[in-house]
Amino acid sequence: MAMKALDIYKNLPKTNCKKCGYPTCLAFAMKLAVGKAEIEACPDLDPETKTLLGGVTRPPVRLVQVGAGERSVAIGEEFVLFRHEKTFYHPPGIMVQVSDAWPEDKVRSAVEVVRDTVVHRVGQDLVLTGVAVKNESNRPDRFAETVALAGGGSSLPLVLIADDPASFEAALAISGHYRPLIHAATGDNWQALAALAKRYGCPLAVRASGPAELAALAGKCADAGAPDLVLDPAPRSLRDFIAAATEIRRAAVGRTEPALGYPLYLDAGSFGEIDTALAAGILKYAGIIVTPPLSPASREAALTLRQNIYTDPQKPIQVTPGIYPINEPGPSAPVLLTVNFSLTYFTLLSYLDASRIPCYLFVADTEGLSVLTAVAGGKLTETLVADSLKKFGVVDQVDHRRLVIPGYAAPLSGKIEDATGWKVLVGPRDAADLPGYLEKEWKA
Q1: How far is CA 5 from CA 8, 255, 288, 309, in A?
Q2: In what order do the strands lie in the sheet with 402-405?
Q3: Are 262 and 167 part of one and the same domain?
Q4: 273 and 341 within one domain
Q5: What angle do CA 53, 216, 221 make, to 5 degrees?
Q6: Mean of pLDDT over the chain
Q7: For residue 239, what is the domain's CATH number?
């Protein structure tokens, strides 16, 4: 089981020598407890203690990198079973599957969709991860050619799916330097595939039905020199995957079976409802999800869900506070107060951009809280508004002293007027109603 900071501290020298880079041994213990420091940073521990603490302070799920370069994906290094306990750190890679039995133009088209898909949401660009190439032709040369058509791993991370080592040999001759994921080692071929993974330094998926069988096979592959593993529990149904994934994650987080401490693999295309399988994989611990080509709506839904699940629930996504001109405003344009919660900001921005109304969006720092929450929690106050008006030089950009505040901030209107000397207008609660409100009510 994971050790608490105080339990770790009891095993440290307690000299506060700062050799580890932290001011005290207790500070070092606290970082170790959350996996943000390495036990090797303490030079004064004996090997036995290092071994003891290393086993309980390293992330229970190993970090594995698939691909190389800008689009590579890091999976694993997770600490908790439930997101609300802390957070999930590394979003799963969504890999679109192509077949080496397809015509070349169909392969190229699918790869282009993966490469070019970008969903813009709350200030982030969401993209698909890479391509999974499946050997259905049973020809190593054809498999290698399709891997080359998919870019060979130089631009997009790859998953190589085949049965025989000869096909992997041919494909890895083209893509091996770019760390594709080899899928999959089984009880029959694990020695040959572990040798290939070791030679090329590639991650290796191991496939077996059941956590006990997976642990045994993963242990063999790791001992053979292939430490970067991904576990495929070979589910017969989506229900089987969820049950196996939960059991494996629980064993990893509880450190009861170290050989299960690896990211998981899900073939979403092996089930009837692909969108449901994608959602289940994102929610239930999959590190790599292979899927058939997706419709635009399915791509956007999967990327949005992944973004939502893999954000820190204790740290809202924020934008930088400040004054933002929209639609080339002049000195008579309205000034609209809002908060720096990203979803609020970008929702407002989309409506205001579409309305073509020139205005200034005045973003106050509420530590990422929404308007209603910031008002209720005392983060959005008249003092903050007054200080922010001065800090961002709003008075120098307009020739009036009128401020439109969100409808949910109406209780603060009088206090803001007293603190700032500005005339406060209470706008609508719903962002969709703001353009109509400005057209009817705003007079500079």
Answers
A1: 5, 17, 32, 27
A2: 322-326, 359-364, 335-339, 402-405, 423-426
A3: yes
A4: no
A5: 80
A6: 93
A7: 3.20.20.20
Same domain, 47 and 124: no
Span 53-80, average pLDDT: 89
Greatest distance between any 2 Cα atoms in the chain: 78
Same domain as 233, residue 98: yes
- Burial class from Cβ neighbours inside 10 Å (0-12, 13-18, 19+) for residue 112 reads exposed
Q: How confident is the model at residue 2 (pLDDT cuts 50, 70, 90)?
A: low
* 153 in the same domain as 230: yes
**pTM for the whole structure:** 0.81
- Radius of gyration of the chain from its Cα atoms, rounded to whole angstroms: 27
Q: 92-120, pLDDT tens digit by residue?
A: 999 999 999 999 999 999 999 999 999 98
Are 351 and 412 in the same domain?
yes
On whether both 69 and 173 belong to a single domain, the answer is: yes
**Distance, CA of 288 to CA of 342 (rounded, Å):** 28
